[in-house]
Amino acid sequence: MTDDDRDLFEEAMAGVEPVTGPKPVLRKPAAPSPRERHGPPPPRFRVERDGSRVTGLAADRRPRTLGRLKGGHYPVEHRIDLHGLTEAEAREVVEDELLAAWGRGRRCALVIHGRGRHSAAGPVLKEALPDWLVADPLGRRVVAFATAPDRLGGLGATLVLLTVRR
Fold first, then answer.
1. With b meaning 16 or more CB within 10 Å and e meaning fewer, what string describes 23-39?
2. How far apart are CA 83 and CA 85, in angstroms?
3. Is residue 113 a contact partner of residue 33, using CB atoms and an 8 Å limit?
4. Which domain holds residue 12?
5. Same domain assignment for residues 64 and 29
6. What angle, 0 to 180 degrees and rounded to 10, lies between the N-to-C axes of helices 124-134 and 87-103?
7. How many domains does the chain have?
8. 31 shares its domain with 76
9. Measuring CA to CA, how many Å separate 135 from each of 39, 130, 132?
10. pTM across the whole model
11. Rounded-to-integer distance, Cα 94 and Cα 129, Å
């Protein structure tokens, strides 16, 4: 250290007093949470929109399940008709009815939402339904969903496959 450096240091430290008392406790920074280490969790559903058709499959399920649902191979055990309901009313009905169906051990439900032809806003219920199905409380009970085949309502209905109740 040169004399100039020492003079600068002493000038900078003028009036500074040593800290007295107990030694400060140095804490290690908290370990990062799993989310911070690995990023956000993977999405619970893979939802795909293809024009007027929509499909959704829980990430832990095989694509074959979705193929069977799209083909109408699961017997429809519960029907929900949303015609004439507002979006808020429809969401409440869908949640209540699907949870009740799941509670009774039903696996496949047909949600009839229409195509939105009589709505100035277009197919509001049809567009909102996938979001309702992947969100709680339904997201933990839904395995897959798909636009219904023509014989079950086509673009105006959605098939929903529920988990097996244990």
1. eeeeeeeeeeeeeeeee
2. 6
3. no
4. 3-37
5. no
6. 40
7. 2
8. no
9. 20, 9, 5
10. 0.73
11. 9
